[in-house]
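Hey team,

Filing this mostly as a record. A colleague (T.K.) asked me to run one chain through the structure pipeline before their review meeting, and I want the input and output archived in the tracker in case anyone asks later how it was produced. No errors, nothing strange. Just documentation.

Input sequence:
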Amino acid sequence: AVSAQASLQEMTEMKLVAKDWCHASTFDSSKPVNSEKMCCYGKVQERPMAYPRGSHKCCQFASYSNEDYICCSGEVVKRVKDPLLPDTPKNKYKCCGLTPLNSIRFMCCRGTVQERQSYIRDGASGDTKKDSCCGTTSFYLDDYFCRKGKLIPYN
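Output structure:
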């Protein structure tokens, strides 16, 4: 019981140290002089001021706005609107390695961006649950199955 209690105390002390590192007397986000700064994993960063305050996020130790950017594999990457689906909500954008993609239209197959077969068949209303990958190729589960990395049609 003593060692478990000691571990809990050590963890609490580590949290306090990490909190103090970013929120030391030189940084207090409640003060107007520091309102343009934010804390990202213990490191003080500039807020992306051109964007609404609620859109400010951390990607590793960097700050960014999720209005136009996404964090992919620890890197801040510009999210490019899909010209075929320009009104896609920002939460539908995902990453494939360092490449942002519209997950309604695209999917990631072993690090390769592939167009969803459900989108090709039925547009934005397609059933994305029927999309799958066979290696780096996307396929529709009603039409094919994958065996040892090869697509085999049902028929």
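Quick notes for T.K.: The first strand starts at residue 37 and ends at 40. The chain has a mean pLDDT of 81.
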